[in-house]
């Protein structure tokens, strides 16, 4: 008989999880919160590591086209703030700038043919940074945001860009929309889903009046915290989130048919007005409950890429 025995790790697992396993345990041994599932059946969904996040980021980066890596390489200082990253094609890729290059690729040839951008709720400035670094034809990039966030974005962008590039940025407060002149492209990523519907409508009215293009990458609906395994949370924050944005219907974000239906409503909801029509749209990966859509003045044409 071959002398084979369990190692120290499996002695512990067998003693603590397997030894007392009964037929009654079959009812729930594969439940996400079950210790048996986490150690025996698969990696537990509640794994307290970067495993799933970095797997998502890594696989997302692996599926990118060659153009993605060429653009990513041309954006300097993407590591400010010490983000998590994976390495693909020799580049250290973090998820925020993966999104930025995805957004630029979706927008396509429009980015080399315009001069002015307005981004509403630009956060710390990841997309602004990438656009200004990649497109010298952009002469003015306006960032509209709340004052506390603008404090962060000003510091970040001043460090990420050269002095001449930073001078192209115009910082505007949310209550100063009347100061805006006409502009080529309006951008909103995620933040319209986080503010009151009546405020979103005011922004959309301004976009319809003053912009040739509008790009949105927002959520197509709302979901309950329990749908993603979140059971301890601030109820006031969740209540506020569920009542924000244009698309407030609850959606099973892991149901393909439900998402298809929700996307139709999303495309109608973020249409700024009669002046603009849908130019193109597509599913936003890897988080497929987000959606890319570009609206443009009806009949407006672009030069081919």
- Mean pLDDT, to the nearest integer, reads 93
Please tally the helical runs, counting DSSP H or I stretches of 4 or more residues: 11
Measured as a percent range, the helix fraction is: 25-40%
Strand proportion: 15-25%
So what's the overall shape? globular
CATH class type of the largest domain: Alpha Beta
The fold-level CATH name of the largest domain is Rossmann fold
- Give me the Rg, rounded: 23 Å
What's the name of the CATH homologous superfamily of the largest domain?
Answer: Vaccinia Virus protein VP39
The topology string of helices and strands comes to: HHHHEEHEHEHHEEHEHHEE
Structural class based on helices, strands and sheet pairing: alpha/beta
The beta-strand count equals 9
Summary keywords:
11 helices; Rossmann fold; 305 residues; seven-stranded mixed β-sheet; alpha/beta; two-stranded antiparallel ribbon
Written overview of the protein:
- It is built from eleven helices and nine strands.
- The relative contact order is 0.09.
- Strand 6, helix 9 and strand 7 form a beta-alpha-beta unit.
- It is globular.
- The protein has helices at residues 8-18, 35-41, 51-62, 66-73, 95-107, 126-134, 147-160, 163-166, 197-210, 235-242, 256-269, and strands spanning 86-88, 91-93, 116-120, 140-145, 169-173, 183-189, 211-219, 276-283, 290-297.
- The protein folds into two domains: 30-55, no CATH class; 56-297, Rossmann fold (3-Layer(aba) Sandwich).
- The model has no long low-confidence stretch (mean pLDDT 93).
- The protein starts with 7 loop residues before the first helix and ends in an 8-residue tail after the last strand.
- The protein has 305 residues and is an alpha/beta fold.
- The strands form two sheets. The chain has a seven-stranded mixed beta sheet with strand order 5-4-3-6-7-9-8, with helices on both faces.
């Amino acid at each position: 008989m071959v002398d084979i025995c369990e190692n120290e790790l499996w002695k512990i697992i067998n003693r603590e999880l397997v030894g007392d396993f009964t037929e009654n345990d079959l009812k729930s041994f594969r439940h996400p919160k079950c210790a048996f599932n986490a150690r025996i059946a698969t990696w537990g969904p509640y794994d307290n590591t970067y495993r799933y996040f970095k797997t998502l980021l890594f696989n997302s980066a692996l599926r990118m086209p060659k153009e993605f890596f060429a653009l990513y390489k041309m954006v300097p200082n993407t590591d400010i703030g010490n983000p998590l990253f994976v390495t693909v094609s020799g580049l250290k890729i973090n998820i925020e700038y993966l999104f930025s290059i995805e957004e630029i690729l979706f927008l396509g040839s429009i980015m080399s043919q315009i001069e002015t951008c307005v981004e509403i709720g630009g956060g710390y400035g990841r997309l602004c940074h990438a656009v200004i670094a990649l497109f010298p034809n952009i002469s003015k990039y306006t960032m509209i945001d709340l004052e506390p966030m603008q404090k962060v974005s000003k510091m970040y962008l001043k460090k990420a860009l050269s002095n001449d590039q930073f001078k192209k940025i115009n910082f505007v407060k949310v209550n100063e929309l009347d100061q805006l002149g006409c502009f080529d492209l309006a951008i909103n990523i995620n933040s319209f889903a986080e503010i009151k519907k009546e405020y979103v409508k005011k922004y959309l009215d301004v976009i319809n009046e003053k912009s040739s293009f509008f790009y949105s990458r927002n959520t197509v609906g709302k979901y309950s915290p329990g749908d993603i395994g979140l059971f301890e949370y601030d109820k006031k924050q969740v209540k506020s989130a569920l009542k924000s944005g244009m698309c407030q219907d609850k959606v099973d974000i892991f149901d393909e048919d439900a998402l298809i239906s929700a996307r139709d409503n999303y495309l109608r909801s973020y249409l700024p007005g009669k002046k603009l029509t849908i130019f193109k749209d597509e599913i936003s990966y890897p988080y497929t409950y987000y959606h890319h859509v570009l609206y443009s003045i009806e009949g407006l044409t672009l030069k081919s890429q």
